[in-house]
Every structure is written in structure tokens, then in C-alpha cells.
Amino acid sequence: MIGLQDMIGRILCKELTSIYWKEDNNMKNMIKISLTILIIILVTMGAFATEDNSREDSEKLLQKIVDSADEILSSKPNVTKVTQLLAALPEPESKAKIAVYNIVDKTGQVKDIGSSVVTQGATDMMITALQRSRQFIILDRVNFVNLMNEQNLKTKGRLRQGEGPQISRMTGSDYVLSGGVTEYQVDKATGGLGLKIAGVGGSNKYATASTAIDLRLTDTTTGEVVWAVSLKKEIKGEKIGIQTFAFIGNNVVEFETGKGKQEVINLVVRTLLEEAVFKLYQSGVF
């Protein structure tokens, strides 16, 4: 039976490969995916593992799939212009230990449908920015409950002997980093006619999106705030439709429908947080 599976699999692969060279690019992509799925299914069923040679063939096929990762993967690094500054910093031999707490949205801005305008992912962006800088030992205090659950499973004897975390080995912090997104505003303006808000007014020429963050670093021994920063960023969008403006490439804001607001504000917040990490490095606190 396994031999039959092997034969059927090879015939299907051969037929799909033959069709591949006769079709357009869209169909070729679909055939690539079909071939990949087919190979994985057949390998899982053992169709290519009946003999040593068959196993070797299947391993080669799987390796080809891995080698084609660049063609299969569609994601790309989520970076800003400031990311390269963080990546260029020299990594220190000794690193300060920073406990990161929630970077919260304090603007109170919401869309008509009730969801927040400002990203709720600022804390995650901050941890990523700190990690990219390679300047600090980062302690996640936001998901601390999850960590404690794992510790409690150990202390309550619910884990296998010798498995799980070691107790009383957690890293202590030198500093606490906290703060929030404190301002958000999207305005539209006309050439020479002054500021127009939320679509009220005449023929709009451009739009401006701005936001601000406030962050502070607190010494965990003394409780003193040893560093604080307030940063504001503003970007201008070009008009591409009656009520539609484009910010930085493909980030589009439609003022009347609210669509796309999240994209541009997320980009601004990420940039501000990365700039804040760079300024923290420059501050000389450490």
C-alpha cells in the first residue's frame, strides 16, 4: 500500500510540474503551494520513506522547500528610519537591568465604532526598540502574571521532576521604565486659510497627524526619576482624493470614514519610542 502511495505521489508531482511550465505567474504560485502541501502530506504518511533511497529523496525535497524560504515567506521586517540608529549602537559589556511596565494610551481618543485610535501595542513596541538597541537587560513586567503562573506550577509540584523554571533565580531590576502616549491629533489645513479639523471647511490641500509620548526612568533603589523625556512627532500627508490623504508611502488616512487612522498613528508611535531609546542611550544615565 505504501508503494502505491509513493507511485501516486510521484505521478501527481510530475503532472503538477508539467502544468507549472504552461501557466501564468498567478497559476504558477498556486501550483507551487499545491506541490509543497502534497510533498508534506506524502512525507507525513510515509510515502517517501519505504526505503533508504526514498527517505533520502524526501529529505532532499524538504530541504528544497526550506531553501525556497525567500520565495514562500511574505513578511518583512517592521522597521523605521530610526531602527538603523539603534542597530548601529556599540553593545556594552555591562548592561543596566530595566523592568518595562505598561506604556499606556492616555489620549482617550476613540473612533465612531468605539475602538481606540491610538495603538494599544506601545509597550510591545518599546520592548522591541530596547532589544534592538542591545544596550539593556530587559525585564518584562507586563506579562508578569504568565511568568508567575509558570513559577507556581513548579512550587506546587505540578510539573515533572527536574522540569520547569528554577525558583528564586529571577533577575532584579536597576530601573523601571514607564509612561504613555499622551497626545494625538489629526488636522486638515488649506493653503493660506488656516487650520481645518475633522473635514470642516473648504478645499483641503494637506493633512497633519501628530502624537506625543512621555516616558520616565525610575531608580528602583532610591525611587528617584533619573531620566524623563517628552517627544512629539508630526507628519504631513498629501491629498490623493476628496477626503483621502496619504502619509509616508502607502499609509492612508480617510478622514470621513476613519479607515487607515490606525496605520499612520502606529508608525508615528513606533518611531517616537525608538527615538526615545536612542535619547536614553545618549543621556549618560548609565
UniProtKB/TrEMBL annotation:
InterPro entries: Curli_assmbl/transp-comp_CsgG. The keyword Ribonucleoprotein does not apply. The chain crosses the membrane at residues 30-49. One of its GO terms (cellular component) is outer membrane-bounded periplasmic space. The keyword Membrane applies. It holds the Pfam family CsgG. Keywords: Cell membrane, Lipoprotein, Membrane, Palmitate, Signal, Transmembrane, Transmembrane helix. This is Curli biogenesis system outer membrane secretion channel CsgG. It comes from Halanaerobacter jeridensis. The lineage of its organism: Bacteria, Bacillati, Bacillota, Clostridia, Halanaerobiales.
